[in-house]
Structure formats: C-alpha cells, structure tokens
Amino acid sequence: MKKIILFADTGIDDAIALIYALKNPEIELKAIVAGYGNTDRNRSARNAEYLLELAGQESVPVINGSTRPLSGEEPEFFPEIHGEEGLGPISPPIPANRFRNRTNFSQLFRIIKDNPNEITIVNVGRCTSLSMAWFLSPSVMELVKETYVMGGAFIEPGNVTEVAEANFYGDPIAANFIAQNAPNLTIIPLNVTRRALITPTVVDFIDSVSNTPLQQIIKPILDFYYDAYQELEPGIAGTPQHDMAAVMASLEIPGLFTYTNKQVKVEYKEGYAEGLSIADFRPGVPECTGAGCVRIATDINESIYFVDMLRTLIRND
Ligand code: BDR
Ligand code: CA
C-alpha cells in the first residue's frame, strides 16, 4: 500500500489522476496539495474537494498550495483546455459545508512527520508548492520516501511552447530546484505521458459500466478535454493522461515504464528556452549514479498502461 500525497493543479487530467488514486486499492491517499496551474489555486482546491465528495472520501485533507510561481509573476491559466472552472463543462456546486476539510500548509509537514519514510509525493502540477515545502522545512521533507514529478519533455517537443512542457514552464525556477534537489526523484515527462491515451471509445465504455457519482464525471470531462485536444493536436486518437501516468508510475507496475538515470536542469532564464528540461542524452554518455541523479521515464508499454487504467477506472466499489 502506497501512502501518497498528491500535489495537483486540479484540471481535467489531474481529476482523472485523482479518480485513479481514489479507486486504486494499492493507494492510500493521505492528502491533496492544491495549487494554481491549469486554473487558479482556489478553483483547484475546490475541484479536489468536489471529487473527494463524489467519492465519499471527504476525510482526505485538501491543503492550500501556492497561488503563483516563485518568480512572483501572475500565472497563466488554461480555460480553453480545462474549462472555466477547471473541470470542463462542470461547475462544482458550493454546499454550505464546503471547505470544511481545507487546511493550511503546515498540515503537510504534520502528515509527513507522522509517516516517516513512508510518504510518496506525486507532483502533477507546477513545482511551486513542493519547492516551498523544501524551503520551509528541509528536515521534514528529508522524511519523504520518494517523489514522482509529471513534467518536462526530453529531446521532444513541448506542449506549451516549442520546447517546454506546461508544468515546468509554469514555474521553471521551482522545477529546476526540485530536479536538482529532491532525493529519490522520478520524472515522468511528456515523452511518455502523451502516449498514455484514453480514446473516446474507451470513455464510452467506462461510462456504460459506471454506476458511481465519481465515475459518472469521467465522460463529461474527458469529452470536453478531447474536443480541446482536437484543436491542439488535430487527429490525436484520445486524450493524454499526463497526470494519471505519474500516479501509475509511483506504483512501480512491472514493465510499465523504461527509465534512464540522468542529471536534470530546467532552463529558468527568460527567453525562448524557458522551461526547457535538459539532460545529457548524447550517445556514449553513461547513466549517472548517486546524489543529484534523476530517474527519467523514456518509454511506456501502452498495453500494460491500458489494462491497468481500464481495470482501475471501471472498479465500482
Ligand atoms: C501537465 O500540465 C498540466 O496542464 C496538466 O494537468 C499536466 O499536469 C501536462 O503538461
Ligand atoms: Ca496537472
């Protein structure tokens, strides 16, 4: 059983990652740190709470994460991809007891201290909140067992600029800090996540066997996401589940990903390369070992991904 703290900018693929985590019996979700990114921080936290409510898991704390990147600049949000509220066509209702579980950042340290060397962090949004946790309390963060980050694109086109992936581009200072300082770090970049697809046929199948409120949200949000992706990448067969791929990675499912070990830098200076993830992939350059070495996913077995994704999302319990 993995004890996971999910750092998310709760848009559509974050929501699918959260649904996967909530439905997977091998995951004990200890908290969600909700930050800005796909949408603003408050919507991101509210969306996480809404999904927990649909799952009947309101006891999972939602921790308020960052509202802007470390540069201090205004963040850019992505309503055209994730909808005005971050969940496509859905506007989560605001019941009277909303925010009852919302808690502040110090709760993160309490959970880690109570579970020393047992917490896996999966960061599927900007790296701002995670880097701030390291700045605020490095001694507590040393008690984290391992960290998985969805971000970057290595010798691969970006998605937000020609060269940069959205999570790293959104806060390249934080991404660079985490890439160079978080121990036991695995990066799940666009190289593999853009192949972790859910096609409309599979969405329809999931919907046809769905009988829980949590599952019934999958089709409306993924239909919206599919239409957005058809604008972005015309002809793409489905929607890329960037964030679910990172949660899956944390389960170390045999054969799902192929990895290499490299030191990683993220370009954080203003200019055309901002947000670019850099590692030395020249032929003949050996993998690294020891401190500062990051495990990077370079390939995905789509069959293993597909079976695990479908088996988990159609669970009705
Ligand atoms: C990543 O950026 C965010 O918009 C998505 O939720 C995902 O985490 C993909 O580049
Ligand atoms: Ca995300």
Provide structural commentary:
The chain has 317 residues and is an alpha/beta fold. The chain has one domain: Ribonucleoside hydrolase-like (Inosine-uridine Nucleoside N-ribohydrolase, Chain A, Alpha-Beta Complex). The chain is built from 13 helices and 13 strands. The strands form three sheets. Strands 4-3-2-1-5-6-7-13-10 form a nine-stranded mixed sheet, sandwiched between helices. Strands 8-9 form a two-stranded antiparallel ribbon. The model has no long low-confidence stretch (mean pLDDT 96). Bound molecules: beta-D-ribofuranose and calcium ion (CA). Calcium ion binds at residues 8-9, 11, 13-14, 37-38, 124-125, 243.
Summarize the structure.
The chain is of the alpha/beta class and 317 residues long.
Computed over alpha carbons, the radius of gyration is 18 Å
Helical run tally: 13
The poorly predicted ranges are none
Please state the overall shape, judged from the principal axes of the Cα atoms: globular
Q: What is the number of beta strands?
A: 13
Bound molecule types:
beta-D-ribofuranose, calcium ion
Strand line-up of the largest beta sheet:
4-3-2-1-5-6-7-13-10
End-to-end C-alpha gap: 17 Å
Q: Could you state the CATH homologous superfamily?
A: Ribonucleoside hydrolase-like
Following the backbone from N to C, one meets helices and strands in this order, namely EHEHEHEHEHHEHHEHEHHEHEEEEH
**CATH topology-level fold name:** Inosine-uridine Nucleoside N-ribohydrolase, Chain A
Which band does the percent of strand residues land in?
A: 15-25%
Tell me the structural class: alpha/beta
Query: What is the CATH top level name?
Result: Alpha Beta
- Mean pLDDT, to the nearest integer, reads 96
Tell me what the CATH architecture is.
Alpha-Beta Complex
Q: Helix content range of the residues, please?
A: 25-40%
The count of domains is 1
